[in-house]
Amino acid sequence: MAHIIVLGNEKGGSGKSTTCMHLIAALQRAGKGVGAIDLDLRQTSLFRYLDNRRAFVAREGIALPEPERGVLALSTRDSQADALAEEEENFAAVLNRLDQSCDFIVIDCPGAHTRYARMAHAAADTLITPMNDSLVDFDLLARLDPASGDVLGPSVYAEGVWKARQMRMKAGLKPLDWVVLRNRMAHVNAHNRARVGDALTELAPRIQFRIVPGFSERVIFRELFLNGLTLLDLRDVGQGSLNMSNLAARQELRDLLRALSLPNVKVSF
């Protein structure tokens, strides 16, 4: 079956869609068939990224890899039970269709708790939770004592991941690999960075996640979105000479892919 990677975080602005797009590009360049599902049915940031990519390809007359899309919609049934049943059926149908042709399915969840997001978390083989490197975003994972900085307990989101794990166990599926991705790590404010790092290190064994470095804050990521490009496309579109910032960002992507330890994926870019 296809390996399901879910990008989940109930706060916006953590870089989920950017991370999704770069994972998709890296997996395709590793020779894997990839499907993409955007569960943010209002903003559709991932699919807008892909639409920009398709427009760029048509405009420039070049070929770039693009994933197979799985499109979902909200149920319009009046009963909550009926709506849930319809959405569960639709979600399963999309996964089954993509499973026929894809080695990996990458799912971008919204920054909110929805029925589809709950289904995605239960289906995930790998759950990636990007978070900005701040104590504000740490609140997504756990509550901190404001005086001592000690971890008081898991957040609502962390409890939801635990429930998803329980559902997987009952279904006889392999354990969920939960990865917390420290995105937009600042080059300054070392004290704040250290506090976040210490809190994550304390929390990780308690609620069972791995900590992985993500992407630094770079202007290039905002620029790439407009044309639907990734760091891995720059040489294909005529930008053969990369600056130091772009090269550093590519290295961050290599490190991320290696840290995820996805099945049968060789990092070759």
TrEMBL record:
Gene3D superfamilies: P-loop containing nucleotide triphosphate hydrolases (3.40.50.300). Pfam families: MipZ. InterPro entries: DNA_Partitioning_ATPase (IPR050678), MipZ (IPR015223), P-loop_NTPase (IPR027417). This is AAA family ATPase. The lineage of its organism: Bacteria, Pseudomonadati, Pseudomonadota, Alphaproteobacteria, Rhodobacterales.
